Amino acid sequence: MTLALGTIADDYTGASDLANTLAKNGLRTVQTVGIPADDLPLGEVDAVVVSLKIRSVPAAEAVEKARAADRWLRARGAGHVMYKICSTFDSTDEGNIGPVLDALSADAGAAAVLVTPAFPETGRTVYQGHLFVGSVPLNESPLKDHPLNPMHDANLVRVLGRQSVSRVGLVPQALVARGADAVRARLAELAVDGIGGVIADAVNEGDLVTLGAAALDSQVSVGASGLGLGLARGLVATGRVLRVDATASVMAGVGGLSACLAGSCSKATLEQIARAEDVMPVLRLSAEALVSGPAEAEGALEWAAARIGDGPVLIASSASPAEVARLQALHGREAAGHAIEQGLATIAEGLVKRGVRRLVVAGGETSGAVVDRLGIPAFALGPEIAAGVPVLRTIGGAHGDLLMALKSGNFGGVNFFTDALGLMSK
Ligand SMILES: Nc1ncnc2c1ncn2[C@@H]1O[C@H](COP(=O)(O)OP(=O)(O)O)[C@@H](O)[C@H]1O
Ligand SMILES: O=C(O)[C@@H](O)C(=O)COP(=O)(O)O
Description:
Layout: E1 5-9, H1 12-24, E2 29-33, E3 47-51, H2 59-75, E4 81-84, H3 97-108, E5 113-116, E6 124-127, E7 130-133, E8 136-137, H4 156-163, E9 167-171, H5 173-176, H6 180-192, E10 195-200, H7 205-215, E11 220-223, H8 225-237, E12 257-262, H9 267-276, E13 282-284, H10 287-292, H11 295-305, E14 313-316, H12 321-331, H13 333-353, E15 356-362, H14 364-374, E16 378-386, E17 389-395, E18 403-407, H15 416-424
Parallel strand pairs: 1-3, 1-4, 2-3, 4-11, 5-10, 5-11, 9-10, 12-14, 12-15, 13-14, 15-18
Antiparallel strand pairs: 2-16, 6-7, 7-8, 16-17, 17-18
Helix pairs in contact: 1-8, 2-3, 6-7, 7-8, 11-13, 12-13, 13-14
């Protein structure tokens, strides 16, 4: 396997979002969970997305894991490695975007690394270095209430500057509009000035194609799925990859039962859960009970066992910002989040043991906990359910073939759960 592109994602849903974009744009892509064992059959692929769970861990741990993944990818021929971050730039002043960027850049001997979370297909655009979610700046969007990393500043030059050891530059949209050569020239100037990360504006697909073409000349880039689109298009346009659609072949039926789990408290997920109540049994867990001991997860499995033979069920811990704040005040932000993730992972494991083969999970950290608990080593890419969310088929692991969808909290239309199960049942 000689890779045309290596990528490292800071969470598992983000990884499947990026893998979806690369596959949709013609790259044979596989998503691994961490660095895979040498004997895992990944097949001939153009791109690997190594999923890590490093968005909300201490910066030193994130750096160490990203560095190891980078070494693995480069040893398999990847000349360019993209670090996949959230399209809403989820991070804190401690990191982890800046520290990982600094480390990967130092290891590769890179300077003036392009950084853009723009993903216009899902409403994320960057203009004059400011990130917009739909029509509002990041700090006015629902991300201001995120349970783990509330975002209070839309100016990404400032946000990245607080996390990075180097000064941060900007490539404004007016320059991006002049094309890849203009961007390359500006990056070269910024490198001479000692700039580390460079926030790049992008408001449409054309901007991303320009940025992807420019980024491919360097060893490292940082971005969300939009930049993945640019890189994939650049690889195909320059003949380095032959465009292929391999997603249909992963959809052979897996049989068994279906279930959905939600730990995301994002606005979109809360609406999707409310809509699911019209079409399937929904159990709303008590987050407080889930944090206090195993009884709540055991009770949820009994509840599911009584219903799941008749059709899919949904089990959710998701709650409004006020309820999340109340629980966090009692237990602390990280402890509450971790305990709930582990409770949902226990439920996922129990469901699979009871015959669930098609599993939809909403929430990035939640998906990470579930995938780790199930011991899944890698995923092949199936078709797209909604922007940024593909059907995945497990590769290897102790549970046989499962179809899964790992949904980023904010993604998907209001009927997401039924859309996902519909596609997974074909
Ligand atoms: N009722 C709740 N109260 C507090 N925190 C919660 C609750 N339900 C879930 N959480 C936590 O909120 C976090 C949601 O993050 P995540 O799963 O990444 O979703 P998203 O994709 O929306 O960011 C997780 O750590 C989860 O355990
Ligand atoms: O880029 C994105 O928005 C997503 O791929 C993503 O990473 C979202 O994170 P979660 O909402 O925590 O899943």
